[in-house]
Amino acid sequence: MTDIEKLIARVMEESGKTIGDIEAEMKKRKEKTHGLLSDYGALYAVAKEYGVDLSDGESDFTALSELAPSKSVNVCGRIKTIFSEREFSRKDGSTGRFASLVIADASGESRVVLWDSNTSLVAESRVGDVLAVKNGYVKENRGNIELHAGSLTAITLNPPHAPQDLPEVKERIDILSALEPGLPAVNVICRISSYYPKTEFSRADGSTGSRASFMAEDETGKVRVVLWDPLSETELAEGDIVKIENAYTKEGLNGGVELQAGSRSRIGKTEAKLNLPPLPEKTEGSVKISDIKSPLNGFTLEARVLRVYEPREYSRGTMASLILGDSTGTIRCVLWNEASPMADKLKEGDAIRISNAYSKANMNSEFEVHVGKYAKLDIEKGLDVPSTDQINEVMAEEKSIMDLDSSDSYVKIKGKVIAVEERSLFYMTCGECNKKVQNLGGEWMCEECGVVEGSPNMLVSVVVEDKTGNIRAVAFKNNAEKIIGMDVEAAMNMIGETQDEAAPLSHAKDTIVGQDLTLLGRVNYNDYSDQLEFLVNDVA
């Protein structure tokens, strides 16, 4: 290769132009001077226009600490931080683009702003790369000196002639388990386990924003990631390994850590490897309860509500749970945080459809249905699922009293009533939401609905015995009515006639002690009595 060919190759490398572009420009300049310019002279003129320095020395680079507002400057530094490309609207209505990086040399560091066509460089750049900027211009921005690369600026990534004293920059990759709220510059490599596409929202100023999110995981833990505005349009899918740079952390709605990727962040797929097990199979469409024997994502379940447990607080928010049944079995369903209030709208016997659920094994290695923020739960009267009685008859496991355990969530027991406990027979509930109410100042007060008209309901406790032992069984509402053999109105009439609040229970002792009962329900450990008790879900 001749010297001129070597120089042309160098201009090609540093300017990004093709050999055809360079030779055409050289020809134009030679023709303008009527052949007075040699190939070397013409190439020098072309190189100068492209901002390419053909000298071999390093002295033409200005130290970053010496930058001052000027028309033209050449710098070289190692990339420390990369910010994603952004669009903006010009005054004439056209759309422009810009991106930026932070580079460092032996004297200091500076922000480099790339405009329009030069912004494509950020997609190729990595932290630790060397960046040479020829024919850039320096501006002051809010007291800070910045180097700008415009249309006449030549930018070279990892040039062959760079200062030897550039500082080494090692990229820091954070692990998810170490993240905590308030970190300003976070870099992670993670796998997308669940992805939720872009949605739009209205800001307070009337503008429209967009966001997408996903659950990220690495070998140490999981965290929710939120992508804002332009980053929300990034094409991603579950299973992708991605690198997120220059994100920040904040406390999420449920007290956990969220990773936020905004205008100063960037995200892209990477070939990096993570030592993670395969993602659970994503199941589209409906499944039966008997199919939920492994981790599944995104499935739909149609089932009957057999039991509703009120929402309760836990360390990261609120949760509620249900016992569901269909023609193939029963299963526990957990409603997390935003979904937990739905438990207040459900009652035993409701037919429901849950969409975009996922399954997870509990501490006893039993799989449960989980309903999170992105799932949907609807009450559907027309669903083709068995009735509560059909499910109770077929699905509830029959156990002896001695074999009952506090983990039994849906079982059947048979025994003889040997005692009726003397306790208050009635409690009051809200006529709107059916929650228990308190009498305050002569008015019934509901935590949810305020002052309401209280509705009386029964609570009956009996002791049931089989050949293996006995247990206290507690029944509410219609199940209490079934056991005692009279409804609320009949019991209240008896009290009114006898002026004895214990009259209905005394009558029950005379009529039901010695009777055989078949009860379906769950086992509960009573902290006060330090004993197991049976909470009745149905009286067969």
Output the keywords:
OB fold (Dihydrolipoamide Acetyltransferase, E2P), 540 residues, 45% strand, 5 domains, single chain, five-stranded mixed β-barrel, mainly beta
- Overall structural class, as computed from helix and strand content, comes to mainly beta
- The tally of domains stands at 5
Shape: elongated
CATH class of the largest domain: Mainly Beta
Q: Note the total helix count.
A: 8
The oligomeric status of these chains comes to single chain
- CATH H-tier superfamily of the largest domain: Nucleic acid-binding proteins
Q: What is the CATH topology assignment of the largest domain?
A: OB fold (Dihydrolipoamide Acetyltransferase, E2P)
In the sheet with the most strands, the strands line up as 1-2-3-5-4
Helix content: 10-25%
Count of β-strands: 30
Strand fraction equals over 45%
How many strands, what sense, and barrel or not for the largest sheet? 5 strands, mixed, barrel
Gyration radius, rounded: 36 Å
Distance between the termini: 96 Å
Low-confidence stretches: none
Roughly what is the average pLDDT, rounded to an integer? 84
CATH architecture heading of the largest domain: Beta Barrel
Descriptive notes:
The chain is mainly beta. Helix content is 15%, strand content 45%. It is built from 8 helices and 30 strands. A 5-stranded mixed beta barrel has the order 1-2-3-5-4. The chain has a 5-stranded mixed beta barrel with strand order 7-8-9-11-10. A hairpin with a 2-residue loop joins strand 24 and strand 25. The chain starts with a helix and ends with a strand. The model has no long low-confidence stretch (mean pLDDT 84).
